[in-house]
Design goal:
The complex is a heterodimer of chains A (318) and B (517).
Chain A (H helix, E strand, L loop, with lengths): L2 H5 L15 H23 L1 H24 L10 H11 L8 H15 L12 H12 L18 H6 L8 H6 L11 H13 L6 H17 L5 H10 L3 H8 L10 H21 L6 H9 L2 H7 L14
Helix pairs in contact in A: 2-3, 2-4, 2-9, 3-4, 3-5, 4-5, 4-6, 5-6, 6-14, 9-12, 10-11, 10-12, 10-13, 13-14, 13-15
Chain B lengths: L21 E3 L5 E5 L9 E2 L6 E2 L4 E4 L8 E2 L4 E10 L5 E9 L21 H10 L12 H8 L5 E6 L8 H8 L1 H15 L4 E6 L3 H11 L5 E6 L8 H9 L14 E5 H12 L6 E7 L7 E6 L4 H7 L9 E4 L6 E3 L12 E5 L1 H4 L13 H5 L6 H10 L2 H6 L10 H5 L6 H27 L20 H29 L21
Parallel strand pairs in B: 1-14, 9-10, 9-12, 10-11, 13-17
Antiparallel strand pairs in B: 2-8, 3-5, 4-7, 5-6, 7-8, 13-14, 15-16, 15-17
Classes of the chains: A mainly alpha (318), B alpha/beta (517).
C-alpha cells in the first residue's frame, strides 16, 4: 500500500451508507403521481392545459435558477422541487387564465415564498398554495374563468352549492373529472391513484389526507347543504380542490408536521377551516386558505406532539 | 412472531460472507498491539524493545482502575514501542512484535483447575480479567468489570448475536461453527449469576444459526434461542432489552440497573475459552468484505494483524476503495491507513467503493419529511436536534433529550436531504456534556473547597499552580475528550474536502451504550 493510495481514501464519520432516496427521487415520485391528472387535464381542457403546465414549470425552474445564480448560491434546481411547485401552480388555475398571470404567480411562489425564506425546506407556507391565493386575490376574474371548451359557460360544483343549488353534473362525472374546475383538480379518481402511488412509495403517510378528507366529509354528511346528505358529500368532497389539496398540497413536507399525531391534528385542522370557509365564508372554496393557515402552525404542532423519548417519562413496566 | 422494537430501518444486508467458513490467517510477519483496546485506562508496557515474547504472554497491564491486559498474539521479538493512532482515532502506545513464526505458547496459559461449570464468581471474574477479554461487538467494555458489576443484580442474561449491521457475518459464522462453545460460555455465566435461564438473541435472517444453536442447547431447556426481527439497530442493547423484556432502559442507565446483562456471542465464546483452556483474547474473527475485495472472507486473525495483511489474504483489492471502514457501515470508523491493526473490537473490515459511500452532489438540506422520526429507535426528533445544533442552540437540544441519542445512524441513513444528522447531534452532545461537567465541577468546588486550593470553578479556570493530585484530575477528563475530538475533526476536514462544512468527527466517543452491533 503506497502512501499515494492511502491519502485518497475518504474519511467521514458514520454512518457510511445512505438510503438511495434523495430529495430528487422523492420529487420525481410526486411528478409521476401527478402525471395521470396531467394527461387527463389535456383530455378535458385541450392542449392549453399542457401549455400552461409546461410554462409554469419552466417559470418556476427559471426563477429558482436565476435567484441562486444571482445570489451566488449553489444551484439546486436538479432536486426537482421547483418543478413540482410549477406543476401544482398550473394545476390550481383555470385553463382560460391569461398566461401572463403565471409569470407573477410563479415569481411569488419561488422568489418571495421559497427563496427569500432560505430555499427548500425553510419556507413557512406552501409556495404553490401561496401563489394560488396571491393570484386569486390580485386577479380574481382571471382565476374564476371556468369554461369548458364545449360549453358557453359553467359554474363549478362548489359555486353552485354556494348559491344553494344542486350542481347539475352526474356524480360519476364528478369523480372522473368531467366538470369545470382548475386544470389539475378535476379528476378525483386519477388524483387518488396518484396518492396511492405516493403511499406505496412511502413518499407520504396517510394521516394528513385521510384526516383532512374525512373531516370535510363528516360535515357534508351531517349538515347536508344541498340535496341528500350523500349528494352533498359527493359534490363537496369531489367538486373542488379538496382531493388535490389533501393529497398533494397539505402533505408538502416542509409545511406539514413530522409527527404522526401532529399530522392528524394538521389534517383535521385543514378540514375544519375548509368547511368553515365553504359554509360560512364569502368564497365557495376554502382548501387553499385552510392549508396556508395550518402551515403557519406547523412548528407548534410539532413541538406539542413530540413523541415520548425511549426510556423517559411514563412507561408500562419499569 | 419475531421479537422487535419500534423504529429502526430495514436495509439491504449484503451479508456476502454468510456462507464462507472462517479461515485461519497464517501467522503475520509482525503484529501491532495497541496498549489500549478497551474502555478505561490504557495499559503500561511490561516488555522492552528487543525482548523475546511468547504467544499469549502478558505484554501490557493496567496498574489500577478499569482496564484489560493485552497479550502477545504471536511469539517473537519486540521490535518497537511507539505512539500511533488506533482504528478508533485515539493516539496510544503500541507494541510492534516481529513474529518468529514458531507460535511458541506462553507457559502461563493454564486451564481453570476445577469444574468450569461450577466456577465461583470471583474465579470467573479473575480468569476473564487475566484473559484480557473486552466486549467484542465493538464497544470494548472490559468484560470482567461487566460481570463484577452485574453479579447478584440480574434476572436476565442475554447473548447478543443479532448482528444487525449490514455486511458483518463474524458472529453468524461463529454460531454455525462453534455453537457448543457459545452455549457452554453462556452456561458458565448463568452459573456465575445464579440464573436458571439464559437467552440468545439472533436476527431471523440467520435461520441456520438458530437451528445450530438449538441443537447445541439440546433438551435441557435452560437456554432459549430467540428469533429477533431483522431490523437495524436490533443489536443495540436498549432495543434488545426492550424487545425481550418490554423494559425501556433510561438514558444513562446500565442494563444491570433493570436486571439485565448482555454479552456479545464472541465475548461469550472467549469467556468459555478463558476457563476451558486459559487462552487469553489474542485472536478474533474479522469479516473482511466489501465490493472492492476480490474474495470477501471471514478470517480468524491474531489481534494486531495489520488490515493490509487481511486484505492481501482475501485476494487483494479489485479497485481502490473510496472508504476503508473498521466495523460496520453504520457505526464503524473510516480509516486513512491500511496498516492499522485489528483490535479486540474490530469485527469487520470493509473496503467499499463509491457505489456505497459516495458523497451527495447537492448541498445537504433538511426538507422536514419526518422520516428520521419514524426510524429513530429512541423516539427522538433527529431533525430538530440537527437544526438546533446547527444554530448553536444546545440548550434546546438538551431539552429535546439529545443525550438519549445512541448514534445508531438510522436517521442519517434514511435522510433524503442527506443531512449529516448524527454529526450535528454529536457536536450537541459533547457541548451539553461539557456544560454539565463544568456545572458539576462548579457545584463540587463550592460545596467543599479543597484544602490548599482556591475554588475551582471549571476545568478551564484552574490557573494557580495546582497541587499535582487533585487539580490534575479535575482538568484532565475534559481536556482528554477535547483532544480526541479535535484530532478527529482535523482528520475529517483534511482528507475529504467536502467534509469541511461538517462539524467534528467524534465517532470514537462511543461508549458501552452499544454492545454487539
Amino acid at each position: 500500500m503506497n502512501a499515494e493510495n492511502q491519502s485518497l481514501m475518504a474519511l467521514s464519520p458514520s454512518p457510511h451508507v445512505k438510503h438511495k432516496n434523495t430529495t430528487q427521487s422523492i420529487m420525481r415520485d410526486v411528478l409521476i403521481a401527478l402525471s395521470g391528472a396531467f394527461v387527463w387535464s389535456i383530455v378535458v381542457f385541450g392542449y392549453m392545459a399542457a401549455v400552461l403546465t409546461v410554462l409554469s414549470v419552466a417559470l418556476c425552474v427559471f426563477y429558482e435558477f436565476a435567484y441562486q445564480k444571482l445570489m451566488r448560491k449553489p444551484v439546486t434546481v436538479s432536486d426537482l422541487s421547483a418543478a413540482v411547485t410549477g406543476v401544482l401552480i398550473a394545476f390550481n388555475v383555470p385553463v382560460d387564465i391569461a398566461p401572463w398571470v403565471l409569470i407573477f404567480g410563479c415569481f411569488f411562489a419561488i422568489i418571495i415564498v421559497k427563496q427569500l425564506f432560505g430555499g427548500i425546506g425553510k419556507n413557512i407556507v406552501n409556495p404553490a398554495i401561496a401563489a394560488r391565493i396571491f393570484m386569486f386575490v390580485c386577479w380574481p376574474s382571471e382565476m374564476s374563468r371556468f369554461f369548458k371548451p364545449d360549453a358557453v359557460t359553467s359554474s363549478t360544483p362548489l359555486a353552485s352549492m354556494k348559491s344553494g343549488a344542486l350542481p347539475d353534473y352526474p356524480m360519476l362525472d364528478m369523480f372522473l373529472g368531467l366538470i369545470p374546475g382548475c386544470i389539475g383538480e378535476v379528476s378525483s379518481l386519477l388524483l387518488i391513484i396518484g396518492g396511492i402511488y405516493l403511499l406505496v412509495r412511502r413518499v407520504i403517510t396517510p394521516q394528513i389526507p385521510i384526516a383532512f378528507i374525512l373531516t370535510v366529509a363528516v360535515f357534508y354528511l351531517a349538515l347536508s347543504p344541498v340535496g341528500t346528505p350523500l349528494q352533498s358529500l359527493g359534490y363537496g368532497v369531489f367538486g373542488g380542490g379538496l382531493i388535490l389539496g389533501a393529497i398533494f398540497m397539505a402533505t408538502d413536507y416542509t409545511t406539514s408536521p413530522v409527527t404522526p399525531v401532529g399530522r392528524i391534528i394538521f389534517g383535521v385542522g385543514c378540514g375544519l377551516i375548509t368547511v368553515a370557509i365553504r359554509f360560512l365564508g364569502a368564497y365557495p372554496e376554502g382548501v387553499s386558505f385552510a392549508i396556508m393557515i395550518m402551515n403557519l402552525l406547523v412548528y407548534y404542532i410539532d413541538k406539542f406532539t413530540m413523541p415520548r423519548v425511549f426510556g423517559m417519562g411514563k412507561q408500562k413496566n419499569s | 412472531m419475531a421479537y422487535t422494537f419500534r423504529g429502526g430501518v430495514h436495509m439491504n444486508e449484503y451479508k456476502l460472507t454468510a456462507q464462507s467458513p472462517i479461515e485461519v490467517l497464517p501467522t503475520p510477519d509482525k503484529v501491532i498491539i495497541p496498549l489500549s483496546q478497551h474502555i478505561g485506562a490504557p495499559c503500561k508496557a511490561l516488555v522492552n524493545v528487543g525482548d523475546r515474547v511468547d504467544k499469549g504472554q502478558v505484554i501490557g497491564a493496567v496498574e489500577k482502575g478499569l482496564g484489560c491486559p493485552v497479550h502477545a498474539s504471536v511469539s517473537g521479538t519486540v521490535e518497537k514501542i511507539e505512539s500511533v493512532y488506533t482504528p478508533q482515532g485515539r493516539k496510544v502506545e503500541q507494541i510492534i512484535i516481529a513474529s518468529d513464526g514458531e507460535n511458541r505458547l506462553s507457559p502461563d496459559i493454564r486451564p481453570y483447575d476445577g469444574d468450569i461449570f461450577n466456577v465461583s464468581a470471583e474465579d470467573c471474574i479473575e480468569a476473564v480479567r487475566v484473559a484480557g477479554i473486552s466486549g467484542m461487538g465493538g464497544a470494548t467494555f472490559p468484560t470482567y468489570a461487566k460481570i463484577a458489576s452485574a453479579v447478584g443484580k440480574v434476572r436476565h442474561i442475554i447473548i447478543n448475536s443479532a448482528e444487525c449491521e449490514p455486511f458483518i457475518t463474524a458472529n453468524h459464522r461463529l454460531m454455525l461453527e462453534s455453537p457448543d462453545e457459545i452455549t457452554a460460555g453462556l452456561r458458565i455465566l448463568m452459573h456465575v449469576f445464579g440464573l436458571q435461564k439464559g437467552l440468545i438473541a439472533v436476527e431471523d435472517n440467520k435461520p441456520d444459526a438458530i437451528v445450530r444453536l438449538r441443537e447445541s442447547v439440546g433438551d435441557k431447556g435452560d437456554i432459549e434461542v430467540k428469533e429477533m426481527k431483522t431490523k437495524y439497530p436490533q443489536g443495540d442493547e436498549r432495543q434488545l432489552i426492550y424487545a425481550l423484556t418490554g423494559v425501556e432502559l433510561k438514558a444513562g442507565k446500565l442494563p444491570a440497573d433493570v436486571g439485565c446483562v448482555i454479552f456479545n456471542s464472541e465475548t461469550c465464546y472467549n469467556v468459555y475459552r478463558a476457563l476451558a483452556s486459559g487462552m487469553p483474547l489474542i485472536e478474533r474473527i474479522v469479516t473482511v468484505t466489501g465490493d472492492c475485495l476480490r474474495t470477501p472472507k471471514n478470517v480468524l486473525a491474531p489481534i494486531g494483524t495489520p488490515v493490509s495483511r487481511l486484505i492481501e489474504f482475501c485476494g487483494g483489492l479489485k479497485e481502490k476503495p473510496e472508504k476503508l471502514i473498521t466495523g460496520g457501515p453504520m457505526m464503524g470508523v473510516a480509516q486513512w491507513d491500511m496498516d492499522i491493526p485489528v483490535t479486540k473490537g474490530t469485527n469487520a473490515v470493509l473496503a467499499l467503493s463509491a457505489t456505497f459511500v459516495k458523497e451527495p452532489e447537492l448541498p445537504f438540506n433538511c426538507i422536514h419529511c419526518g422520516k428520521c422520526i419514524r426510524v429513530c429507535p429512541m423516539h427522538l426528533m433527529p431533525l430538530y436536534l440537527a437544526r438546533n445544533s446547527r444554530k448553536g442552540d444546545y440548550d434546546e437540544c438538551e431539552k429535546l433529550n439529545v443525550l438519549s441519542c445512541v448514534e445508531c445512524g438510522s436517521c442519517a441513513y434514511i435522510c433524503p436531504g442527506k443531512v449529516p444528522i448524527v454529526q450535528f447531534i454529536r457536536v450537541a452532545k459533547s457541548v451539553v456534556n461539557d456544560r454539565r461537567r463544568a456545572k458539576l465541577l462548579a457545584a463540587q468546588a463550592s460545596e467543599k473547597p479543597v484544602k490548599s486550593q482556591p475554588a475551582v470553578k471549571s476545568a478551564n479556570e484552574t490557573q494557580t499552580p495546582e497541587e499535582p493530585g487533585e487539580a490534575k484530575q479535575t482538568g484532565k477528563s475534559a481536556n482528554e475528550t477535547q483532544t480526541s475530538e479535535n484530532s478527529g475533526e482535523v482528520q475529517a476536514a483534511e482528507v475529504t474536502g467536502s467534509a469541511e462544512k461538517v462539524p467534528g468527527n467524534s465517532g470514537n466517543r462511543k461508549t458501552y451504550e452499544k454492545e454487539g452491533n
